[in-house]
Write a structure and sequence with these properties.
alpha/beta, 608 residues, 24 strands, single chain, Rossmann fold, binds adenosine-5'-triphosphate, 6-stranded parallel beta sheet, AAA family ATPase, 7-stranded mixed beta sheet
Length: 608
């Protein structure tokens, strides 16, 4: 037998048994169930075979983690397979094609893990005879509760486990995470939890499990356009055969393409939107509103995130709406009238006169269109990541994409503590029935101890979540499983000094350029830093285009583009004068940037 492989054969008579796998193989490319058959079975029998195979591998523990049973691949074996026989992800194989299939896959398990899984299954289920390429098992390696004795994986061993070249979370999850992968929800559900607790990992595992069990399409979407592509590569490794049943696309791109399919073309143009706002602002609006708040950006957000973001279409509703968490300003009735008549209406008029639409118009139109005629081929699962930064109308759209009802297969994933755009609504406002289907993750898997301690120093409040009915659980309360790490901060008095310090850090640190992200406060700063690094012969890529696949360039971008992602080393240039004047929002942005780092974070503040 090829080295590193183990085969478990069902010893029952007659062989092969019916309704379950006759044998399993476990090796470096994963765990496989062999089903001896002449043809690939149909849907319900396939599901039954999968469920039986997964049961055999359920609850295999390694330290605090559990093997993820849906990672078992079902292989259908026949004496001689037709050359092109497949049903979706399943293929008929014969002895000639089997070996190639087994050894040709991507690595998933270390030799030790593969061995321990096989021995553990054989040890607890006497039905299986074990044929192993290794010597006889060393009994002390097998624990009654799992694959390893808990003490074995403390310290160094756990450290090694987390530094493996392939991703451990593909095959092992912690029990809380696995529970959320398996839990059944009838209707929209909500996963929350502080940064780095594996919310997105759990979401892509749920999609992979769905892909392996059920027919039907899946959608993974988010507000930030690059984030879906960033998570797509992880999903493709978990469910390589899902093909175009799984879409990973930003919400605006989804809406545009959906409308185009219905013969409606809406292409919001950022330049035109900006110009319409500037014109409105240059009128009497500025005279009235600048004394209340000097920043045009504040008023832009009032239009995009409060008025249009909440789908408000008349002044009476605007006057009544709770503008929760719009820092520093309560707007009474007469002031709201000014906002409405002097800013909002002129903005709308300019856009309309020029025949343009903004992003909220796009979202509204897609929602209307879906209400009028739902999708011909509905999604079986819709995952929304970083939901805390969605507006109310965007939430309404994703609910509608998932069918819009109380049983919509919608999964909202996010963390209110990480909201980096101004709020103005709470989850309960959106009217999506989630109560009772919320779950929280608590253990941080991303940040090493020193990095987490540094991120925790920020007092970032959570103003989005009001559904769980329990005291908030934030980054401060989460615990890390990764020891060590490095975190430091310094303050400089000019941008030039920050540039100098950054170059020194990039040169001195032990990280390859591809492992480093430079996070900035503004887009202009990101542009400037890229030019600086390029001039100094470092190759860079903008986070605006980063999809998680590039590993040679230094990534540079604002915190808005970095959220949801992680990097071995983060260098954060904070321009204090450009932070939002809302201290809560400012704190959340700092916290999000710090918590992107796994091993190393350095923060350089440019004093106002
Ligand atoms: N069980 C696990 N074992 C090992 N690594 C894990 C595990 N769960 C998650 N991770 C890793 O931890 C990091 C954070 O995971 P993920 O991005 O899913 O967290 P998140 O809760 O969505 O974070 P954020 O809210 O900050 O975006 C990723 O690098 C992921 O691969």
């Amino acid at each position: 037998m090829r080295s590193g492989w183990h085969v478990l054969i069902d010893g029952s008579d007659p062989f092969p048994p019916s309704g379950r796998a006759g044998a399993f193989a476990v090796g470096p490319t994963g765990a496989f169930a062999f089903i001896f058959t002449d043809a690939i079975p149909d849907g319900s029998r396939l599901r039954q075979l999968r469920a039986r195979a997964e049961e055999t591998f359920a609850n295999l523990a390694a330290d605090r983690n559990r093997y993820v049973p849906h990672m078992i691949e079902l292989l259908f074996l026949t004496e001689r397979a037709p050359r092109q026989s497949s049903a979706g992800e399943h293929r008929l194989l014969d002895p000639a094609t089997l070996a190639q299939h087994l050894v040709g896959g991507a690595p998933q398990l270390t030799r030790q893990r593969a061995r321990d899984i096989a021995f553990s299954v054989a040890g607890r289920d006497s039905r299986y005879q074990l044929l192993s390429s290794d010597d006889a098992p060393s009994p002390e390696k097998i624990s009654e509760h799992g694959l390893f004795e808990p003490v074995e994986l403390q310290g160094d061993a756990r450290e090694r486990m987390l530094q493996r070249p392939f991703k451990d979370w593909m095959t092992f999850l912690d029990p809380d995470q696995l529970d959320l992968v398996h839990r059944n929800f009838r209707g929209p559900a909500r996963f929350s939890g502080p940064a780095g607790t594996g919310k997105s990992v759990v979401a892509v595992h749920r999609m992979a499990r769905f892909a392996k069990r059920y027919p039907g399409r899946m959608l993974f979407t988010s507000f930030v356009k690059t984030l879906p592509s960033y998570h797509e590569s992880g999903f493709r490794q978990l469910a390589p055969h899902a093909g175009d049943r799984a879409e990973f696309v930003g919400l605006h791109a989804w809406a545009k393409s959906f409308l185009r399919g219905r013969g409606i073309v809406i292409e919001p143009d950022e330049g035109q939107i900006e110009d319409a706002f500037s014109r409105a602002w240059r009128g009497p609006a500025r005279d009235y509103l600048a004394p209340l708040h000097p920043s045009p950006a504040y008023w832009k957000d009032e239009i995009h995130r409060i008025i249009k973001g909440r789908g408000i279409t008349n002044l009476t509703t605007y006057k009544r709406v709770d503008r929760a968490h719009r820092y520093g300003l309560t707007l009474d009735g007469p002031r709201r009238e000014i906002v409405w008549h002097e800013l909002f209406e002129p903005y709308q008029k300019t856009l309309a006169d020029r025949g343009h639409s903004d992003f909220n118009d796009l979202i509204d139109r897609a929602t209307e269109e879906l209400r009028a005629a739902p999708l011909d081929d509905p999604y079986g699962l819709v995952v929304v990541d970083e939901v805390q930064d969605f507006t109310y109308v965007e939430l309404r759209l994703v609910h509608q994409i998932a069918g819009g009802g109380a049983d919509a297969p919608l999964l909202l994933v996010g963390d209110g503590q990480q909201q980096v755009y101004p709020g103005g609504w709470r989850l309960s406002d959106a009217g999506i029935p989630i109560v009772g289907r919320g779950a929280k993750l608590r253990t941080n898997y991303r940040n090493r101890e020193a990095v987490l301690a540094f991120a925790r120093q920020v007092n970032a409040l959570n103003s989005v979540d009001d559904l769980d009915g329990e005291p908030g659980f934030g980054l401060r309360d989460s615990e890390t499983v990764l020891p060590g790490g490095s975190a430091s901060a310094e303050t400089v008095s000019s941008a030039a000094a920050a540039d100098e310090r950054l170059l020194a850090r990039v040169r001195e640190c032990d990280f390859a350029p591809g492992d480093i992200a430079v996070i900035t406060t503004t887009r202009n700063d990101a542009k400037h830093i890229r030019q600086l690094l390029d001039r100094n012969n470092f190759r860079t890529v903008s986070l605006e285009h980063y999809d998680g696949t590039d590993d040679t360039h230094i990534k540079v971008g604002t915190v808005h583009r970095a959220k949801g992602m992680d990097f071995a080393a983060v260098m954060h240039i904070v321009r204090e004068s450009a932070l939002p004047d809302d201290p809560e929002l400012a704190a959340r942005r700092i916290m999000v940037a710090r918590s992107r780092a796994r091993d190393y974070v350095w923060e350089c503040r440019i004093q106002s």
